[in-house]
Design brief:
The complex is a heterotrimer. Helices cover 71% and strands 0% of the residues of chain A. By secondary structure, chain A is mostly helical. Chain A has one domain (10-117, 132-295): ABC transporter involved in vitamin B12 uptake, BtuC. The termini of chain A are far apart. By secondary structure, chain B is α/β, with parallel strands linked by helices. Among the domains of chain B are: 16-116 and 185-262, Rossmann fold; 278-357 and 482-526, P-loop containing nucleotide triphosphate hydrolases (Rossmann fold, 3-Layer(aba) Sandwich), CATH 3.40.50. Chain B has helices at residues 70-77, 100-105, 123-129, 139-153, 168-181, 198-213, 225-231, 254-262, 320-327, 350-355, 365-369, 376-380, 398-411, 428-440, 458-473, 485-491, 514-521, and strands spanning 29-39, 45-55, 59-63, 85-90, 93-95, 108-111, 186-190, 217-222, 234-239, 242-248, 279-289, 295-305, 309-313, 333-340, 343-344, 358-361, 391-392, 395-396, 446-450, 477-482, 494-499, 502-508. In chain B, the strands form five sheets. Chain B has a six-stranded mixed beta sheet, sandwiched between helices. Chain B has a six-stranded mixed beta sheet with strand order 16-19-20-13-21-22, sandwiched between helices. In chain B, strand 4 and strand 5 (93-95) form a beta hairpin. The longest helix of chain B is centred in the middle third of the chain and has 16 residues, at 198-213. By secondary structure, chain C is mainly alpha-helical. Helix content of chain C is 73%, strand content 0%. Chain C has helices at 11-37, 42-54, 57-82, 90-108, 114-140, 144-164, 198-216, 218-228, 230-235, 240-267, 278-288, 293-317, 323-347. In chain C, helix 12 crosses helix 13 (323-347). Chain C is globular. The two termini of chain C are 16 Å apart. Classes of the chains: A mainly alpha, B alpha/beta, C mainly alpha. Chains A and C meet through helix 4, helix 10, helix 12 and helix 13 of A and helix 5, helix 6, helix 11 and helix 13 of C.
């Protein structure tokens, strides 16, 4: 039953490639529910990847790398927070600025840390952690319970985020801030505090998503490593209608597309195979664009999404 | 026969006296406000030495015209604004109210004209927001509280209903309910009836009496004399930022109150009604959707003649906005036709409507009428910057734009130091003048004026009315949309009453019956 | 004594100058601290950057060569940012313009019109690539930031594929196109330098044209009105969707032109490594120049100078490459914060305008 094993392998791979999108889109769902459109998520992921890589490379400990990635993510998102919450700048431009800042810093500090021509890499990656017993279940065990910690966190984060947004008093305040910050402030809700809290939560998730790329997916760092996953995550939030369950579904769709574009490549033989498999690398982006074209038309998000808020 | 405009005859008798407030507030006063002064940054003095006292279990009306300073006063009391000077006592104790939250903790809560509810949330969620909650959101607990509070007052409300699906009257009830859940003892209602139908007004008044019997104090802000008479125990009249007088309601009457409200101003405007000309705007069976996809205009037909002012009376939110937007090309008409000077311009872009001579003074001047960050000159050509002499082909002529701007600035008395300063440095009144100047100088043959005097003081309103009469005498047809029945009745040659997206009545000057219009506006049977 | 400026500048212009000064000042301050931390003398470092950018004729010429694509891209972005359409897809539009221009040039071979036609095709290429997100924004209301950025990846992967397979040059080892014919090459202006006609196109054709378009025409008025208040613009009779659409495709057109100018003036072949991120540098430049064409021109030269000068500086002081990326990154943050900083300084009475 070789084919069967291949399909199971493909599904497991699809879930694995979905993990960074899950983490990032859940983080973005939280802040967007609070009325903040964070397009700087791409940059935050990049910083997470960089600090994660450096942490792991310098200490030789992948878990310290992960911690550094989370810290990097939080820090970047907080810089964004200062721009949009503290001094009320345009959220779109601030997000772009964060992306450019992140790219500039990573490019420079990577070169500062390693001489030209050096090719630093991590000798090991955070691999799958089979869950005892559950991973023994046929098929499901391989697909779901023999994954990396990132997949587990991503999946568990879905109900947690859902609970946070819809079943806690913080979530109610968060949503009110996203719908009408003026009314929320009038009712005595500290809009800035709610938003900073949301941003820190996003920072943790996005930092992990970025760190994952270096610590679990590739063992090297490159400034192009994020490859628009942040923007795909923002698209997923729109397509998932600002709901964690929708974000999960969207992440799986795009994760599987990415896995598919690699998977097909491995089957191709003949003279055109190299050509086609190279062309397939644009598939995830094309699918995202088409999905936006179909499912992103004049959708209604949180009413105050993206608009600056000041108490004056 | 009685003159239909009888209530506009403003008597100048009844000298106003400022009530000298008690020197030592005792706890028999729920609220005692002394010597409030407030000047806005733009120089407008909204409150001058205002003193008011409210007893426990009293309904106290604050009566006055637009711009009399009523809303400023209650915003100060409810912590939304900081006074320049003055003292506030609650239950005999001096308090410092620096935020709405603080006001609520002191037992004062306000229902604003613009509701502070989140439309996509349920009743329970909206009320939960204002309660001190931590951790897990237990809406059941909130719902129980809502139930217990509403049962005492015999209010019926479904805690799981979404606000956006509730009629305005119920939304107001939610606002009041929320304040009661917060244990508020002094309720301030700012113009609560302006958005209600008569049945809802009755419900509200019944609720107010119920609250009063439970020992709450209620302050009701209104510009309607009859309302103040109907519901209040005492009434304080404000004019020009000052308190004119505080009276026992039962010792007063309609004409006395009316004369106190508007004393000292004699309208000099001569209103002439000349014969109307040919029809220039024809609307037939128009259907238009609102923002949420509901049918807001349900088949309206109307005709506007040149040299005529056609008043459209109605409570805000009955389809006027959508009707005007459809005529001006800003919103799609679902069906029906709009003929302007016999040209079918249904669903034409705004540009072509403008080109065909339709001027439009929008209600929301700041957001729609001007571009705040652009200069006065640029704003004055917003409607015709593509026409000569302001541009030739694609090239704009700065000189011509400046010349025309300077001329309009002088002619309309806009206070702007330079034609190239940005609009956001002008005061609200001057911004309105700018919009009026632009719309009235384009040589339009149709003017649609939406609440053209809202927020203006009596003198500035008079100026706008003057300009409208001038245009009318030149043969311009004017569609006047206003919630201010006074204004409509005073200026219009003909009045249409709009209710729930339909025209429900038409009146000419000869058969004008204010009571009937008022009832039709509220959808009541005539 | 009061200093008087020779020109009488409007308050708005003075504010813009202050803001640019604040942004550059803070960015350079931060860079100086970075130099100190990495053991370099900041004064020496900036001296080398300046010398590397303008030290002699050929270095100055190289700086202008670098300015050319940055200016073309950022002029387009200034148009689109003026009406608050955030095109961050200039990189992809640049690549598409370059690719289509190159294909045209190679296909036409040596004809008198090869250059003109190829330049034209590159403009159309950038324009068409930008028209997809433009349509999605103007007609369907889909956020252009996301779509333009995703389109960058589609374009770059597509071009990598085109260069690896259908349009691969038969005579080289790398995935790159065949050389463009000599008639498609932009002539060199100063002998013994690489300064080509492209700089004239950018500085003396595109810049005045864009300046005129933005400052003197009704289209410029519409851009501003739509950017500042789309609701009022619509009310004034402006077609908001069409204005946004035009702004985005014009910026795409200029980015496309920048791409082929780079091929035809410098590289002579289409390569996947054509642009070191000019599409993103353009964003920084447009923001720093505050969407004013003249400001954008100065900002382009400034960033081009740092681009080139930092290479010299890195070699002289044994510093890592890519200080320019660092400066670019912090610069954009300070550009954003400059309004806030300026207001703070005004409040403290440090600055009076």
């Amino acid at each position: 039953m070789i084919e069967w094993a291949l399909i199971i392998g493909f599904i497991a791979a699809g879930i694995r490639t979905s993990a960074p999108l899950m983490l990032a889109s859940l983080g973005e769902t939280i802040v967007e529910r609070g009325g903040i459109l964070n397009l700087g998520i791409e940059g935050a992921m990049l910083i997470g990847a960089f600090t994660g890589f450096m942490g792991a490379f310098l200490t030789g400990n992948l878990w310290i790398g992960l911690l550094m990635a989370i810290l990097g993510g939080i820090l970047t998102v907080l810089v964004f927070g200062i721009l949009v919450v503290r001094i009320n700048l345009d959220q779109v431009v601030s997000g772009l600025a964060i992306n450019l800042l992140a790219a500039g810093l990573c490019l420079y500090f990577f070169r500062l840390a390693f001489s030209q021509g050096a090719f630093p890499y991590l000798s090991e990656l955070i691999g799958p952690y089979p869950i005892p017993l559950l991973s023994q279940i046929p098929v499901i065990g391989d697909v779901l319970f023999n994954q990396t910690i990132f997949v587990y966190v991503g999946i568990i984060a879905v109900p947690i985020t859902y609970y946070l947004i819809f079943k806690t008093s913080y979530g109610l305040k968060l949503r009110s801030v996203g719908e009408d910050p003026l009314v929320a402030a009038y009712l005595g809700i500290d809009v800035s505090r709610i938003r900073y809290t949301a941003l820190i939560l996003e920072g943790i998730l996005v930092g992990m998503a970025g760190g994952l790329l270096c610590l679990s997916m590739f063992n090297v760092f490159d400034t192009r490593i994020v490859a628009a996953r942040g923007f795909v995550a923002v698209s997923i939030v729109i397509l998932g209608r600002w709901n964690p369950v929708g974000a999960l579904a969207g992440s799986l769709l795009f994760g599987f597309t990415e896995a598919l574009s690699l998977w097909i490549g491995t089957f191709l033989i003949g003279p055109a195979s190299a050509s086609i498999s190279q062309l397939l690398s644009l598939l995830p982006y094309l699918v995202t664009l088409i999905a936006l074209l179909i499912g992103g038309r004049r959708v209604r998000g949180p009413a105050a999404l993206g608009s600056p808020f000041s108490k004056e | 026969m009685q003159n239909p405009l009888f209530f506009l005859k403003r008597s100048v008798e009844g000298k106003a006296t400022t009530i000298q407030a008690d020197q030592h507030p005792s706890s028999e006063y729920a609220l005692y406000v002394k010597g409030i002064n407030k000047t806005y940054p733009n120089g407008i003095v909204a409150n001058r030495d205002v003193s008011v006292s409210v007893m426990w279990g009293e309904v106290h009306a604050i009566l006055g015209e637009n711009g009399a300073g009523k809303t400023t006063l209650v915003k100060i009391i409810s912590g939304c604004l900081k006074p320049d000077s003055g003292e506030i006592y609650i239950d005999g104790k001096k308090v410092d109210i620096d935020s709405p939250l603080k006001a609520v903790s002191l037992g004062i809560g306000m229902v604003h004209q613009h509701f502070t509810l989140i439309p996509s949330f349920t009743v329970a969620e909206n009320i939960a927001l204002s309660l001190p909650l931590k951790g897990r959101l237990s809406l059941d607990h909130v719902k129980e509280k809502i139930k217990s509070v509403s049962e005492v007052l015999n209010l019926k409300i479904d805690p799981d209903a979404r606000i956006e699906q509730l009629p305005v009257g119920l939304r107001q009830r939610v606002e009041i309910l929320r304040l009661l859940c917060q244990d508020v003892k002094i309720l301030i209602l700012d113009e609560p009836t302006s958005v209600l139908t008569p049945i809802e007004v009755e419900d509200l008044f019944r609720m107010i009496r119920e609250l009063k019997s439970k020992g709450k104090s209620i302050i009701i802000i209104t510009h309607k004399v009859r309302e103040a008479l109907a519901i209040s125990d005492r009434v304080t009249i404000m004019r020009g930022g000052r308190v004119v007088k505080t009276l026992m309601t039962k010792d007063s009457n309609e004409s006395e109150l009316a004369s106190l409200v508007v004393e000292g101003f004699c309208p000099s405007l001569k209103i002439e009604h000349v014969g109307r000309g040919d029809p220039i705007l024809l609307v037939k069976d128009l259907k238009v959707k609102g923002d949420r996809g509901e049918i807001a205009v349900k088949g309206i037909s109307l005709v506007l003649h040149s040299g005529e002012i056609l008043g459209m009376a109605g409570v805000a939110g009955n389809g006027q906005k959508e009707l005007v937007e459809a005529i001006t090309g800003l919103r799609r008409a679902e069906s029906g036709t709009i003929l302007i000077k016999n040209c079918d311009l249904t669903n034409n872009p705004p540009k072509s409507i403008i080109r065909n001579g339709v001027a439009y003074i929008p209600e929301d001047r700041m957001r729609r009428g001007v571009i705040l960050t652009m200069s006065v000159s640029e704003n004055l050509v917003l409607k015709n910057f593509e026409d000569p002499p302001y541009s030739k082909g694609m090239i704009m002529d700065k000189g011509a734009i400046e010349r025309s701007a300077s001329e309009l600035i002088t002619r309309f008395g806009i206070k702007a130091s330079d034609p190239w300063i940005t609009v956001n440095s002008l005061s609200g009144g001057n911004i309105q003048k700018l919009v009026v100047a632009r719309e009235l100088s384009n040589g339009a043959s149709i003017l649609i004026a939406e609440q053209p005097t809202a927020g203006l003081d009596v003198k500035a309103s008079e100026g706008v009315h003057q300009k409208m009469m001038e245009l009318k005498s030149k043969g311009v047809g004017i569609l006047l949309v206003s919630a201010d029945l006074d204004e409509i009745v005073r200026l219009s040659d003909r009045i249409l009453v709009i209710f729930e997206g339909r025209i429900v009545g038409e009146f000419t000057r000869d058969n004008c019956d204010i009571q009937k219009i008022a009832r039709l506006m509220l959808g009541a049977p005539v | 004594m009061e200093l008087k400026l020779p020109l009488s500048l409007s308050k708005g212009t003075i504010r813009s100058l202050y803001k640019a000064g604040i942004s550059i000042g803070f960015a350079l301050l931060l860079t100086s601290i970075l130099f100190l931390l990495t053991g370099a003398n900041p004064f020496l470092a900036f001296y080398y950057i300046f010398a590397g950018a303008f030290g002699n004729i050929s270095l100055a010429a190289e700086t202008l060569v670098r300015t050319t694509p940055i200016l073309l891209v950022s002029l387009g972005l200034a148009i689109s940012f003026r009406c608050k359409v955030w095109n961050i897809g200039a990189e992809g539009q640049l690549y598409m313009g370059a690719m289509l221009g190159t294909i045209t040039a190679v296909a036409l071979g040596n004809t008198p019109l090869t250059l003109i036609i190829s330049l034209f095709v590159s403009i159309v290429g950038g324009l068409l690539w930008a028209s997809v997100p433009a349509f999605m924004r103007a007609r369907l209301g889909i956020n252009e930031v996301i779509t333009t950025f995703l389109m960058n990846y589609v374009s770059i992967y597509l071009i990598q594929w085109l260069l690896a397979f259908p349009f691969r040059s038969p005579d080289t080892l790398f995935p790159e196109s065949a050389q463009i014919p000599s008639s498609a090459v932009l002539p060199v202006l100063v002998p013994y330098t690489r300064l080509h006609l492209g700089v004239v196109i950018a500085l003396f054709v595109a810049l005045p044209l864009v300046h005129f378009l933005m400052m003197r025409t009704t289209f410029g008025y519409k851009l501003k009105a739509v950017g500042e208040n789309p609701e009022a613009a619509k009310y004034g009779g402006i077609n908001v969707g069409r204005t946004m659409l035009l702004a985005l495709i014009i910026s795409g057109a200029l980015a496309g032109l920048a791409g082929f100018v780079e091929v035809s003036g410098i590289q002579f072949r289409m390569r996947p490594s054509l642009s070191p991120g000019y599409g993103y540098t353009g964003i920084v430049v447009a923001l720093l120049g505050q969407n004013n064409p003249l400001g954008v021109a100065l900002a382009s030269i400034f960033l081009a100078a740092i681009f080139n000068g930092s290479t010299t500086m890195s070699r002289a002081l044994n510093q890592p490459q890519g200080v320019v990326d660092f400066i670019q990154g912090v610069l954009v943050i300070f550009v954003l914060a400059s309004e806030y900083i300026l207001r703070y300084l005004e409040k403290k009475g440090v600055v009076k305008i």
